[in-house]
């Protein structure tokens, strides 16, 4: 499942590709036919993400305020199997959606950026690219599309729940866990059930601290609980707990408020880097081994994730792995002993 930074990238890219345009909406699969027909011909008014949920407001006119009663919100959650596929002419790009990629990783970490990192659409096709490292290999944005007069929308491939078509390209949604229309109250109701998202300007760190402190579940599990904090997934939870030096097994109600705030403050910039580049890179440059061991390439971007048995980049202790709540959890038993 994509982590939250991917959904924020997607939101920014869709806004840049389609914002202010009247779109054609259809459901080639048929399962979202009623919803698509309600959206068809309406204007995309913006784009928002909260954790792993994408919210797209549509209205009859482009100058419509988002709180107008005639605004319809499309909510999409990709879940485990959802993905977007983009196709368009050479105007169909979103280069500004992400800003310039910040090269926090220097020369030694440069390999982490190979194959992309500068495109807003990188890593959106397929969803789990951060885990397998094939970002940018073959998506719409890394190819130069044809001239606008030569481009034709392709036939939908697979079971396309929703196709959004603008002047220069199409975005096809397949296999989402959720794809539904809501009014503003419906959006607010969904968001009330979600914990704060470190990538949102309106996020409230105190809500995270209060929720985590009220639970006996381990902090490793709580960081994956979208009702406690939104957007972090398996990589971010493992990496931030290492960076902050907290045992993933410590119960939430026994993690101090100060340490919870430190986790939050660590996650924000890590996730912003993910939004800017499409990559989850968490290793500080000083900790990247030089040279990078060929048998341990993950050491260039992750401290513990997927590094079972490898030496901890800070203390040399072998990285440990255990299955917790059906997900693989990675940590350093020395650096994260309490
Ligand atoms: Zn260590």
Q: Can you describe what's shown?
A:
By secondary structure, the protein is an alpha+beta fold. 24% of the residues lie in helices and 16% in strands. It has helices spanning 4-18, 33-39, 129-132, 184-192, 205-213, 219-222, 234-244, 257-277, and strands at 24-26, 43-44, 48-50, 53-59, 72-77, 83-88, 160-165, 169-174, 178-182, 320-324, 327-331. The strands form 3 sheets. Strands 2, 3, 4, 5 and 9 form a 5-stranded antiparallel beta sheet that branches. A 4-stranded antiparallel beta sheet has the order 1-7-8-6. The chain binds zinc ion. Zinc ion is lined by residues 312, 314-315, 317, 332, 334-335. Zinc ion (ZN) is lined by residues 312, 314-315, 317, 332, 334-335.
Short description:
This protein is α+β, with helices and mostly antiparallel strands. Helix content is 24%, strand content 16%. Helix 1 packs across helix 8 (257-277), helix 5 (205-213) crosses helix 8 and helix 7 packs across helix 8 (257-277).
